[in-house]
Write a structure and sequence with these properties.
mainly beta, 6-stranded antiparallel sheet
């Protein structure tokens, strides 16, 4: 989706923040919001979309305890110590079994071909050997906490009403219930961010049973309205009560359009959230049946969030089709996180041919062909194997969104706010010809400093995604490390016939 940046907003940013000096980390700096931008000319934002793997689904329900469903209300990450992809996912055998849901484990060497090692430490019902690692819970978000000095708490998990730690990610100790969170029957997301644990959960907006009239349709929406809540902790033992941090608004179509989760990843200096948005069919009595697509959000403190690209769609849903013509992921939902490996962003998600709420909206019963199914038949349907699976979508690192010219006959210009350039090299993630990208360092008056003008800059390939910028003139070749130290400079990018994604200050 292509969107023009607001000129007035950028002027306001430039006026209010020109004197503020930003010190950046060595991570990638994306342009998902206007935080780094002082001015843009002839540029607009273009939100990209990830590519689904052709072998999807990669993980399928092939064990008897997965008979009812598997969902990635869970986590996939790449573990540097084991050099493997690791997955914790939600499964269920029967709606009448207790516990109804539990967490299973799978692993892979390439992220494509998966196995389910029987690492369960205790018998589970009739099963002596299985891959169930946490009995109970409604989804799980797992992090590997390398900063914790206690090796028994190296892995941490939270989801549903479960709060657990593990030395290896396979054998878990459930420490207590998540009393501070309450109702949380969706995909949770746990992040370690700036010496704090942030736990993004479901929130009611407002409380269950509140009637909200929709002036556009004349319908009354009554039920549990979904929002995003946040609970925090400094030690992973004591947690704050969750508080609301996000809900949809009239522009989205509230109350019939609601967030289903916020799946958060620390990415450079920011938090990026995958935001599944439910578009509920506007009929009285329906609070679940509809479609889901995914948008992007960005935050710099975990509390305040901005929508990316004016609420553009990052992962769209397919047009609903009759069951016999649906793709395996006609309904889908991302897992608790995404991650970068080998310059590729990995986004795992679960999918199914059963649309969201299909079969369950009609006075709390299943409806087939216009007739309400008896309770016995409902249970039989729930225990039949259903077409669930877990798949993968990828997108090149840092390339979630680009800036590109509005008028292709002219170059685009981006000027940053004053930055303290502590790195030695400037890398630019861009899809342009080397001769079409130029960068200058500007002083406080907006003039190129000596030796670092646009005409002196040369973009040399660094890898398949990035250029390294050097400046060359009669004085020789310079890199970022030759700029005056501890003096703030703005970066000004000029480019044509391509896309600018991010920049990075490399040590």
């Amino acid at each position: 989706m292509l969107l023009l940046a607001s000129a007035s907003a950028l002027v306001s940013v430039a006026r209010d923040l020109a004197s503020e000096r930003l010190r950046l980390s060595g991570g990638p700096q994306l342009f998902l919001d206007d935080h780094l931008i002082a001015d843009m000319k002839n540029l607009r934002r273009d939100l990209k979309q990830p590519t689904k793997h052709p072998a999807n689904p990669l993980i399928i329900p092939d064990q008897p305890w997965e008979r009812r469903m598997i969902e990635l209300y869970g986590t996939v990450l790449f573990d540097d110590d084991t050099q493997s992809f690791r997955c914790w996912y939600l499964a269920s055998e029967s709606g009448s079994a207790k516990p109804e849901y539990y967490i299973c484990y799978a692993e892979s060497k390439d992220g494509i071909h998966w196995k389910k090692p029987f690492v369960g430490s205790e018998p589970f019902g009739p099963y002596q050997r299985h891959n169930i690692v946490i009995p109970g819970g409604h989804g799980i978000s797992v992090i590997k906490d390398v900063d914790d000095a206690d090796p028994q708490r190296r892995y941490k998990a939270a989801g549903g009403d479960i709060f657990a730690t593990s030395p290896d990610g396979s054998h878990w100790k459930v420490e207590n219930n998540r009393y501070a969170v309450g109702k949380n029957d969706t995909c949770s997301s746990l992040v370690r961010w700036k010496d704090e644990y942030l736990y993004f959960v479901r929130n009611q907006e407002p409380e269950t049973g509140t009637t909200v009239p929709d002036p556009k349709t004349g319908k009354n929406w009554t039920g549990t309205m979904r929002g995003v809540g946040l609970s925090t902790s400094s030690d992973f033992r004591t947690w704050t009560e969750k508080r609301s941090i996000f809900r949809t608004d009239e522009r989205d179509g509230f109350p019939w359009v609601q967030p289903h989760a916020l799946c958060v990843t620390a990415y450079g200096d920011v938090l990026i959230g995958l935001l599944p948005i439910m578009q509920i069919i506007p009929e009285e009595g329906n609070n679940i049946m509809g479609t889901v697509h995914v948008e992007l959000m960005i935050s710099r403190n975990g509390r305040n969030w901005d929508r990316v690209a004016d609420r553009g769609v990052f992962m769209p849903f397919d047009k609903p089709e009759p069951k016999n013509r649906r793709k395996w992921d006609a309904r889908f939902h991302p897992g608790a996180n995404m991650f970068v490996k080998d310059d590729m962003v990995y986004i795992y998600y679960f999918g199914t041919k059963v649309l969201f709420g299909e079969g369950s909206w009609q006075d709390g019963s299943l409806r087939f062909g216009g007739a309400v199914a008896p309770a016995k038949f409902v249970e039989q349907v729930h225990t039949k194997p259903r077409p669930f699976g877990i798949g993968l979508a990828t997108i090149p690192a840092d390339r979630l969104l680009s800036l590109r010219p509005v008028n292709w006959e002219m170059e685009g210009v981006l000027k940053t706010r004053p930055l303290l350039l502590s790195g030695q090299h400037l890398l630019v993630n861009a899809d342009v010809a080397p001769g079409d990208l130029h960068v200058a360092l500007l002083d406080a008056d907006g003039r190129p400093i000596n030796g670092f003008a646009h005409e002196d800059s040369i973009a040399t390939p660094h890898d398949k995604l990035r250029y390294r910028i050097v400046w060359r003139n009669e004085d020789g070749e310079k890199s970022l490390q030759h700029a005056p130290s501890e003096q703030p400079f703005a970066l000004e990018f000029r480019f044509s016939n391509g896309d600018l994604y991010a920049f990075q200050l490399l040590k």
